[in-house]
Design goal:
Strand order of the largest sheet: 3-9-8-7-6-4-5
Distance between the termini: 58 Å
Number of strands: 15
Order of helices and strands: EEHHHHHHEHEHEEEEEHEEHHEEHEHEH
CATH superfamily of the largest domain: Type I PLP-dependent aspartate aminotransferase-like (Major domain)
Radius of gyration: 23 Å
Length: 449
């Protein structure tokens, strides 16, 4: 058949126990844990699809600008001890396995939301201790569809931390909701639990694991949406994974995230009815062949992106371990020069972003320019939503948010970082700060881990 987007696909004859999901594709009712337990590679799954539905059934197959990014694959072409002309903020961990996985999908002819997307959803749900996963086209789409599925509408209030990329606030505002901004904790950079208490009448509250730092559960009785865009692999203070908080959690797979599918996102939930509504909303509002539940757009993930996600989930623990090693070394090397984010007691961050607050008297723009002259890219850390002129200004003070935004910078951190790159980053940051503070005896070298 040819679907409404013109993508040719063959639809296998459904088993008697199969059910149909939005879009009319037969789906055998299998739990995420069963799908996650399918340990075949993405190339093998794509190959089964290419050989046809019978072969697939026999083998158990189941259905911010990129500035400063360099790929892991390209980085391996240089000598192990060399340093590139510019150390980027992030370097996506993409290698030959990802290239081969995408090529296998292209050869299969199944390009739109198929078995690899479904397996990716299952792996995410299993990792985050959730029952259901729904992959979508971006992290922003994940927030938009979640609010819509929860029934957030015009004049409803939604509580959002003021320190963040605009997506959670804009996703609510697009539905006509009134966004209430709350300030963040000066050490954790997440909204503290008590900040939500006076908004008991709100329709929903957003909790953000800022830069992968696990948030504390809010004092809020209504629906809580966890914006875990940066937090895959982080652990809450309770020991549960980030992504397990609230009625739904939203992820992003932008190239600067822990795991990337280029663009892409996902929603995880334990509510089966909510999961079904989200699947419909991501696929034009379909609930079955020719049956539309409500007007909706196309937010599906492609099968190429699903292949990338499956491959990267297979080495997520290794990526997290390497990122942790670099983060610990850099934090130790920068101690006393910058102010760093602090995790809540018992929480374990994934170190998605190495954020730092510059000392008083150090101009951020000058700091970033000097850093660049030393071959190290840096960037602004985040945004104060009340300054963007897209939302009403709040009545309460947001002074912590403003301090983090005005003096905050993001520094390079990625799994494939070499020790030489790590030393260069640490030395560049320390020497630049010492120079800008007027220290004539600034130490520009030294071990940095």
């Amino acid at each position: 058949m040819v679907d409404e987007m013109g993508d040719p696909r063959r639809v296998p004859r459904a088993d008697p126990g199969a059910r149909r999901i939005a879009g009319g594709r037969p789906e055998v009712a299998r739990r995420p844990q069963e799908l996650a337990g399918d340990r075949r590679s993405s190339q093998e799954i794509a190959g089964d699809r290419r050989r046809g539905p019978r072969a697939a059934a026999r083998s158990g197959a189941c259905d911010a600008p990129d500035a400063g990014l360099a790929t892991d694959r390209g980085a391996r072409r240089r000598d192990a001890g060399s340093i590139p002309a510019m150390i980027p903020l992030a370097r996506p961990a993409l290698g030959d396995r990802e290239v081969d996985a995408v090529a296998a999908v292209l050869r299969s002819g199944m390009l739109v939301q198929g078995p690899l997307v479904e397996r990716f959803e299952a792996l995410l749900a299993e990792r985050c201790a959730r029952r259901f996963g729904v992959a979508v086209s971006s992290g922003t789409a994940a927030l938009q569809l979640t609010f819509r599925a929860l029934g957030v509408g015009r004049e409803d209030a939604v509580v959002v931390p003021a320190l963040t990329w605009p997506s959670p606030a804009h996703a609510a505002a697009e539905l006509g909701a009134r966004v209430r901004l709350v300030d963040v904790d000066p050490a954790e950079w997440n909204a503290p639990p008590e900040a939500y208490a006076k908004h008991a009448d709100a329709a929903a509250a957003v909790v953000i694991d800022q830069f992968g730092n696990p948030a504390r559960p809010p004092h809020f009785e209504g629906p809580v949406v966890e914006d875990a865009a940066c937090a895959l692999g982080s652990l809450l203070a309770s020991g549960r994974p980030c992504g397990s908080l609230g009625v739904a959690s939203c992820f992003s797979f932008h190239p600067r995230k822990i795991l990337t599918t280029g663009e892409g996102g996902a929603i995880l939930t334990d509510d089966e009815g909510l999961a079904e509504e989200l699947r419909s909303l991501r696929n034009h509002g379909l609930e079955g062949p020719g049956r539309f539940r409500r007007p909706a757009a196309n937010h599906r993930l492609t099968e190429m992106q699903g292949a990338l996600g499956v491959e990267q989930m297979g080495r997520l623990d290794d990526l997290l371990a390497r990122r942790h090693t670099h983060a610990v070394a850099l934090r130790d090397a920068l101690e006393g020069h910058v102010e760093l984010q602090v995790a809540a007691e018992g929480a374990r961050p994934n170190h998605q972003t190495l954020g730092a607050i510059l000392p008083e008297g150090v101009d951020r723009d000058t700091f970033l320019e000097r850093l660049r002259e030393l071959g190290v890219q840096g960037g602004r850390l985040s945004y104060a939503l009340h300054r963007l002129h897209t939302l009403p200004r709040p009545d309460e003070s947001l002074e912590v948010t403003e301090r983090v935004v005005d003096r905050g910078v993001a520094l390079p951190l990625f799994p494939s970082m070499s020790e030489a790159e790590r030393r260069t980053v640490a030395d560049a940051v320390r020497s630049t700060i010492d120079t800008l503070r007027g220290g004539s005896d600034a130490t520009q070298g030294g071990a940095s881990g």
